[in-house]
Amino acid sequence: MTAIWPDHLFLIGCGNMAGQMLSRWLSQGLERTRVTVMRPSGKPVGDGVSVVTDYPAALPAGTTVLLGMKPYQIGDVAAALAPLCTADTRIVSILAGTTLAELRSRFPATRDIVRAMPNLPVGLGEGVTALFSDADTDAAAREAIGALIQPLGLVEWIADEALFNRVTALSGCGPAFLFRFADALARAGEAIGIPADQAARMALATVQGSANMAARASVSPATLADQVASPGGMTRQGLNVLDADDRLLALLTDTLAAARDRGEAMARGD
């Protein structure tokens, strides 16, 4: 799918995640003159990209709005932004825990609203973005928003919004969990006697290379692990520790469940 750039892209906030998305879009050919960033600090986001500190009197026709601020700011943002939105405005929200029903209640004039949950590698074009919308969103708008997201990496439409917090726990939060694993692998290497700087480099390169191999393989990661582990060998002995009582699976399940539960609590306003 070829990227389809909106006539105008209006970002509300440009923090870590929204900034990664914008950086990738610009690198893939989005014209800077089509972009406006609303940022109270006025801090620049890149040469040629317009940054404003207050809302304009009106939005250009064909504007796609990216809600990229903190979720708790939705009330103040909607109060100022909703009067500017028309029937042809499209809204993409990356706000964790903010349901489509809440977005529709705050932006009643806007038909085409899509929830998105990207992860940080979108800046490299290697991210994962989950998308969800309901039947009220026009099919052409869904296609256009999907095409806008496509340069960021894998795009997955979610059929049931109830799954959104679970998907967020896996792919949205997942990079942080993987970063923690890479750090732990390096520290474990240090603990068994490898110099710390070497352990850090080797652990990171091992994670990177193995992930690339798994992505290109025709078999599952579980099968790859077993293929690497010769009976009675060093790898098998280490896998026996990870696999005992499904301890690694249990740890990761508890980790994802904790993230999922926090998303659901945020949706309740807790």
Summarize the structure.
The protein is of the alpha/beta class. It is built from ten helices and eight strands. An eight-stranded mixed beta sheet has the order 3-2-1-4-5-6-7-8, with helices on both faces.
Features:
single chain; 270 residues; alpha/beta; 14% strand
- Percent helix among the residues? 40-55%
Strand order of the largest sheet: 3-2-1-4-5-6-7-8
Rg from C-alpha positions? 21 Å
Q: How many β strands by DSSP?
A: 8
How would you describe the shape? elongated
Structural class: alpha/beta
Q: Estimate what percentage of residues fall within beta strands.
A: 5-15%
Distance between the termini: 39 Å
Profile the largest sheet: 8 strands, mixed
Would you list the SSEs in sequence order as H and E? EHEEEHEHEEHEHHHHHH
The overall pLDDT average reads 94
